[in-house]
Amino acid sequence: MGEVFGGVGGVGSCGGGLFTSTAAILVLFILLVIISMAFVF
Fold this sequence. Notes:
Blueprint: H1 2-9, H2 14-40
Transmembrane segments: 18-40
Keywords: Membrane, Transmembrane, Transmembrane helix
Protein name: Sporulation protein YjcZ
């Protein structure tokens, strides 16, 4: 999973891929929170 996101980010190294995947998951989580807030209010 980290390797895939690293390839998309153009990093290639395992550590870089892991960091990129973590950032992508964090962004998706923030978007999910914003969407849920929009539905609640």
